[in-house]
TrEMBL record:
Keywords: Aminotransferase, Pyridoxal phosphate, Transferase. Coiled coil: none annotated. PANTHER family: ACETYLORNITHINE AMINOTRANSFERASE, MITOCHONDRIAL, AMINOTRANSFERASE CLASS III. InterPro entries: Aminotrans_3, Aminotrans_3_PPA_site, Class-III_PLP-dep_AT, PyrdxlP-dep_Trfase, PyrdxlP-dep_Trfase_major, PyrdxlP-dep_Trfase_small. This is Acetylornithine aminotransferase. Signal peptide: none annotated. One of its GO terms (molecular function) is transaminase activity. The lineage of its organism: Bacteria, Pseudomonadati, Bacteroidota, Flavobacteriia, Flavobacteriales. Belongs to the class-III pyridoxal-phosphate-dependent aminotransferase family. Pfam families: Aminotran_3. It comes from the Bacteria. Transmembrane segments: none annotated. Its cofactor is pyridoxal 5'-phosphate.
């Protein structure tokens, strides 16, 4: 049967990967600066990761959450140590959308309220409440639109204050660095004021770290660049290096009850083995230090390219903004220079989300290719 045609596809067929490279069926090597939407955190086919997953699947790939699974406890302890999120509790699921869905559900349980405040250009997933909190009418079906969501401009602290004081908001959900929306960030004053307003109005503050977490911003979580304490932290993409796994870190002010949340596949043995391997590699190879070093080097070179009008993001979650739409530029990079990059809702933005193992020679390769690719695309004469 045919596949349901919902993805516009590039004519590239990766069949294998190693480190920051993927290879197609003809053996062509591509530099992967997108990591499949920031999923590949420790590099393709990392030997420690492959060994951990292979060893676990040879023993026990899955059993349900009706039995003890010490791997979940080990993963939670390692996550607490590396993230610095002391005293939070972990609930495991399968994806970022599911993580945000459970975060919003917990907020509603805790507060007894149902309305959500989210922000323009935010993206939180494609399931029920998560997609309703996403600022994209094209992916919100009528069944999703029944959710009570108010979308405000980022940095509109007076708007947040007015909505929370109405008394019916269960949660404010925010990406500290917007992903799909285009790498925009709120100010420190905004985030810290939202945190305070949530605490004053019996509203849960949800940090969507699905894309920005796991060291990608230069700290383990992007919210750690600010003086805030989220009630729930959602995680997924870089968590399993390609294996489907997600979760939420839950502040102790939210009490667990049997049956409150549940999942069949979430936290299965194979997912935990993958997740533990990622954390172990991040720690062993000092990848968060590498993120900051490579980010500084990347930014230094980016500032030498006159066509780049603005650089957005932090760490290895970066956006290069031009004064023209970058669709054709991305095609040139893929087909002529064999480099994967990402797009965004902001059509003038090139997204850079490489594995955290990126090196300076990879960055040099990218900028050499970018300069050539820019000469190959037709750019507007008087763009503004």
């Amino acid at each position: 049967m045919p596949l349901f045609n919902v993805y516009p596809l590039y004519d590239v067929t990766p069949v294998s990967g190693k480190g920051v490279y993927v290879y197609d069926e003809k053996g062509t090597e591509y530099l992967d600066l997108y990591g499949g939407h920031a999923v590949i955190s420790i590099g393709h086919a990392h030997t420690d990761y492959v060994d951990a997953v292979a060893s676990q699947v040879a023993k026990l790939g899955f059993y349900s959450n009706a039995v003890q699974n010490p791997l979940q406890v080990e993963l939670a302890d390692k996550l607490e140590t590396l993230s610095g999120c002391k005293d939070y509790e972990l609930f495991l699921c399968n994806s970022g959308a599911e993580a945000n869905e459970n975060a919003l559900k917990l907020a509603s349980f805790k507060t007894g309220k149902s309305r959500v405040v989210a922000f323009k250009n935010g993206f939180h997933g494609r399931t029920s409440a998560a997609v309703a909190a996403t600022d994209n009418a094209n992916i919100i079906a009528p069944i999703n639109a029944q959710q009570k969501v108010t979308i405000l401009e980022l940095n509109d602290i007076e708007g947040v204050k007015a909505e929370l004081e109405k008394g019916d908001v269960c949660a404010v959900i925010v990406e500290f660095i917007q992903g799909v929306g285009g790498l925009d960030e709120g100010s420190a004053q905004f985030f810290e004021s939202v945190d305070a307003l949530c605490k004053a109005n019996n509203t849960m503050f949800i940090a969507d770290e699905v894309q920005s977490g796991y060291g990608r911003s230069g700290k383990f979580f992007a919210f750690q660049h600010y003086n805030v304490t989220p009630d729930v932290i959602s995680i997924a993409k870089g968590m399993g290096n390609g294996f489907p796994i997600g979760g939420i870190l839950i502040h102790p002010n939210i009490e667990a009850k049997f049956g409150m949340l549940g999942t069949t596949f979430g936290g299965n043995h194979l997912a935990c083995a993958a997740g533990l391997s990622v954390l172990n590699v991040i720690e062993k190879n000092n990848l968060m230090d590498n993120v900051n070093t490579m980010s500084n080097y990347f930014l230094k070179l980016a500032k030498t390219i006159p066509q780049i009008k603005k650089i957005k993001g932090r760490g290895l979650m970066l956006g290069l903004e031009f004064d023209f739409e970058v669709g054709e530029l991305r095609k040139k990079l893929i087909y002529n220079h064999h480099i994967f990059t990402g797009g965004a809702a902001n059509k003038k933005l090139l997204r850079i989300l490489p594995p955290l193992t990126l090196r300076k020679d990879h960055i040099n390769m990218f900028f050499e290719a970018l300069i050539e690719a820019l000469s190959e695309v037709e750019q507007p004469v008087n763009a503004s």
